[in-house]
Design a protein that fits this description.
It contains 13 helices and 15 strands. It is α/β, with parallel strands linked by helices. The chain folds into 2 domains: about 15-290, Carbamate kinase, CATH 3.40.1160.10; about 300-445, VC0802-like, CATH 3.30.2130.10. The strands form 3 sheets. An 8-stranded mixed beta sheet has the order 3-4-2-1-7-9-10-8, with helices on both faces. The chain has a 5-stranded antiparallel beta sheet with strand order 12-11-13-15-14.
Length: about 450
């Protein structure tokens, strides 16, 4: 039995394929991408990132573009950086054996920078140039996202799928990722990794049967391979399961892109250009995955959580007590991650990056507003999330998890499981993070 439901029309529909920077780092990598695109005639819409690193000591083109702007702003010489960027593209153009006027393109970029153009404009040129080159190499039409993807001032997509669908109505196209334009026509970028978002927006607008996200990893793994040796691959996972794992640091797919694909009910296929025949991981809607009882799809965790423990007798009878605590966090621009509680105690767990430089003041304000009996800042903890739809309505899953952690002689500082039963989150001492992940993984997948 297949672990997912096949959507009707998949064999004939359009596929949007996005290629990341590591897949476009040099001419050899790009030639591999060209072979992948040509292998399936449904890949009629290609989204590209800027060239990434060729080696571990190399720099991404986008980072070089940011440096170009920075040096210009500091009135420093930027010839070396500009020439390095141009040399990267020259090597790609020559290696592909195509004709492309780089001199004119870089002349226009340099002129714009001299005129004081925005940093977003300069940063977007990495994807723009890659898109122009890829369109020539494939013989596809080039579509500038500045013409059809609208962003607000915060870099959030303003949905206009009908216009995008009209602009990319038929034929084969290449569209750069990472940027669009504001309603006023100014270039605006997404956050880093935003080419994923472009691909998802385009897939939703074109009602694609599949969104392929090609990168340098073969898909989602059940655990971080730096912690667990040779973890299993995950063939099929739901949008919500991926969201839970990404929250704990599993780098799979841009979270904003996830929502765009989910809204259009577009399956996402994470695949590797290094293993083009490998299935990878398919991300689908809840109803399109077959679930085995007790099954998990992954375990992930990270350190860096601060615990504020607040005790007060009869807290449960004091209307608005927690509201006042949360108001203090709100006025300081802090969101909480978890809030386990008892009748006389509540623990507020926050990301330590959010309270950096604010913690002492926040504690003072909680003392003033709530007059607790005790207010304690506990040692930092690590949070671990065990995720899987197979845990829902399945007895014995939690017992299995906690037995594994106990056998590893690890003390659990905090437990949280929502009513969805999609995941179980535990807090442990930061030093126990990796040992706990290994223990949980072995209990479910070993």
């Amino acid at each position: 039995m297949q672990p997912f439901a096949v959507r009707p029309g998949v064999e004939n529909g359009l596929i949007v394929a996005k290629f990341g920077g590591s897949s476009l780092a040099d001419a050899e990598s790009i030639n591999n991408v060209l072979r992948i695109v040509r292998a399936d005639p449904r890949r009629r819409c290609i989204v590209v990132s800027a060239p990434g690193r060729r080696t571990s000591k190399d720099e991404k083109v986008t980072d070089l573009l940011y440096r170009w702007v920075s040096l210009k702003d500091k009135s420093c010489s930027f010839d070396g950086v500009r020439n390095a960027i141009k040399a990267r593209y020259r090597a790609i153009v020559d290696g592909l054996g195509i004709a492309f006027d780089l001199d004119s393109e870089f002349g226009r970029i340099a002129a714009k920078i001299e005129q004081g153009v925005s940093t977003d404009y300069v940063a977007s040129r990495g994807e723009y140039l890659m898109g122009r080159i890829m369109a020539i190499a494939l013989g596809y039409e080039f579509v500038d996202p500045a013409e059809c993807i609208t962003l607000d001032g915060r870099g959030k997509n303003v949905e206009n799928d009908r216009y995008l669908r009209t602009r990319i109505a038929e034929g084969c196209v290449v569209i750069p990722g990472f940027y669009g334009s504001t309603a006023e026509g100014e270039i605006k970028t997404f956050s880093r990794g935003g080419s994923d978002i472009t691909g998802a927006i385009v897939a939703r607008a074109l009602r694609a049967v599949l969104y392929e996200n090609w990168t340098d990893v073969p898909g989602l793994l059940m655990a971080d391979p730096r912690i667990v040796e040779n973890p299993r691959e995950v063939a099929v996972v739901t949008y919500s399961e991926v969201r839970e794992l990404a929250y704990m640091g599993a780098e799979v797919f841009h979270p904003v892109a996830m929502f765009a694909a989910r809204d259009g009910d577009i399956p996402i296929n994470i695949r590797s250009t290094r293993l083009p025949d490998h299935f990878g991981t398919l991300i689908v809607s809840e109803e399109n995955r077959v679930v085995n009882p007790g099954e998990i799809v992954g375990v992930a965790g990270r350190t860096g959580f601060v615990v504020i423990k607040i005790e007060k007798a009869m807290m449960n009878n004091e209307v608005g007590f927690v509201d006042r605590v949360l108001a203090v966090l709100r006025e300081n621009g802090i969101s909480y991650e978890h809030m386990p509680s008892g009748i006389d105690v509540v623990s507020i767990i926050v990301d330590d990056r959010q309270v950096d430089g604010k913690l002492e003041y926040v504690l003072e304000r909680i003392q003033q507003e709530c007059s607790p009996d005790t207010l304690e800042l506990c040692p930092p903890i690590a949070m671990i999330s065990t995720v899987g739809k197979g845990m829902i309505h399945t007895s014995g899953v939690a017992a299995r998890l906690f037995q594994a952690v106990a056998d590893a002689k690890i003390n659990v500082r905090m437990i949280n499981q929502g009513s969805s039963e999609l995941n179980i989150i535990i807090g442990v001492e930061s030093r126990d993070l990796e040992a706990a992940i290994r223990a949980i993984y072995e209990a479910f997948a070993g």
